[in-house]
Amino acid sequence: MSRYIPNLRSDARSVTRDRQSEVPTPVLITEKRSQATNVSETAKLLLAGGVAGALSKSATAPLARLTILYQVKGLQQSTGVLQKLSLQQAVQQVIRQEGIHALWKGNGVTMLHRLPYSAVNFWAYEQFTQQWQQCFPSAANHSQDAVLRRLAAGGAAGMCACTLAYPLDLVRTRLAAQTTSTYYTGIWHALSTIVKDEGLFGLYRGLGATLTQVAPSLAINYCAYETLRSYWLTHEPGRQAPTVSMSLASGSVAGLVSSTATFPLDLIRRRMQLQGQGGCEVHYTSYSHAFSTVIRREGFQGLYHGILPEYYKVVPGVAIAFCTYELMKSMLGVQTNVSNR
User: Long-range contact list for 47-51, CB < 8 A, 24+ apart?
Assistant: First the structure.
């Protein structure tokens, strides 16, 4: 009668292989660490971008309100008087009619809009920049390829962020444009009323005009800032992050250039966002029709109504945003694109 004799050596080797398979390999450990690092970097970039946008918008909120009132002069006769006043007189009139808190009217929804908008904007720019550099390595940051990369990444980032947060931008504009008469009592009332009056798509009224303005504006903005930033850093070997003065100066110039180039687009965007509210007449049937109507009724200079408070708002606003973003990245230890911008 045959007896079964176990192969102890074979069983031992099998157990050893099973135990080895349970031990994480160096590749798996590296992948997990890489995933954790990516999540951490994403969180840091989103936080840095959100704080930068919220801080800059709060600091310049009064000028943003005045800019909107100047821009919508063609739609609301009650705000047209601002066109005859200096900036200081306009501030005094708003305070006299509505109180000093009115200079921050709509700032609550601005914060709700700016936090996700700015967070996604800066994060998306870094991601597009990183992907571009991997696909098309650039020999130098001052090359033509780098300029094209900054324009493309800035425009794409702006379109992503704008589409995501657009309903809040629409509500912010309508709340800020209210003066003596109040149709919307708050953020949620405005959202629900717009849907009731104009349908769900009413929350995206003027989105096409907004994207047409936002994409080139942020493309120029990022390109101007990053080009100046790169120029400064190349003249200080060993420095990877700009100083506060570098960020403020570069951001100011970037804001001035982008605002001048795209302000008419922003004005048309505001006009199209405001028409139709409360059942009012729709003045413009399309983006091109709005452009031609403004020029015909108000002249070419009508496209630049409110440019002065816009400068006062954008120049310090962009400077504060970029400076805060750079400081936040440094504090949080962000490594994305730290050595090549």
Answer: 47/119, 47/328, 47/332, 48/122, 48/324, 48/325, 48/328, 48/329, 48/332, 48/334, 49/118, 49/119, 49/120, 49/121, 49/122, 49/123, 49/325, 50/114, 50/115, 50/116, 50/118, 50/119, 51/324, 51/328
